[in-house]
Design a protein that fits this description.
This protein has 141 residues and is mainly α. It has a domain of 34 residues. It is 44% helix and 9% strand. The protein has a two-stranded antiparallel sheet with strand order 1-2. Strands 3-4 form a two-stranded antiparallel sheet. The protein starts with a strand and ends in a 17-residue tail after the last helix.
Length: 141
């Protein structure tokens, strides 16, 4: 697989991108990993910490802290005051990008759409031949 040249999403420097994973350079990746470990340890020691407190004490951007949570890398306790907002309905959540109710609605809509597609394909498909021949065959001379 050929390496591509990409611009780092964090520092805007060029780097060789392997074609998978996050589009950040190795330096920013290493820095982000260090910040992740610091945030994880900080929350372990300060269970009631807010995103604002973490940002102020560790100088880690609130957006990055939220990315750690939405990606599932950083799991919060049920008693944590940190909440995110569901991207569909706006309700408060503690993990992911959408709440359980919106997730269920999406799954139901997907199932319904799949069933409609399946039923329309059955209607639109040509009738099968009852000739008894399956696959390729040759004419007898």
């Amino acid at each position: 697989m050929a390496m591509e040249i990409k611009t780092c999403a964090r520092c805007k420097k060029l780097f060789q991108y392997s074609g998978y994973g996050r589009r950040i350079c190795p330096v920013c990746f290493k820095n982000e990993e260090k910040q992740f470990e610091e945030v994880k340890e900080y929350i372990r020691e300060n269970k009631n910490a807010t995103i604002k407190q973490i940002h102020e004490d560790l100088n880690v951007s609130p957006k990055l802290i939220e990315e750690f949570i939405t990606s599932g890398r950083l799991v919060l306790s049920a008693s944590s005051p940190i909440t995110l907002t569901c991207q569909m309905c706006g309700t408060e959540i503690t993990k992911g990008k959408i709440c359980d109710q919106c997730s269920q609605s999406l799954m139901d809509a997907n199932t319904s759409l799949s069933q409609k597609i399946d039923s329309s394909q059955k209607i639109d498909s040509p009738p099968k031949s009852n000739s008894g021949h399956h696959g390729m065959f040759t004419n007898k001379r």
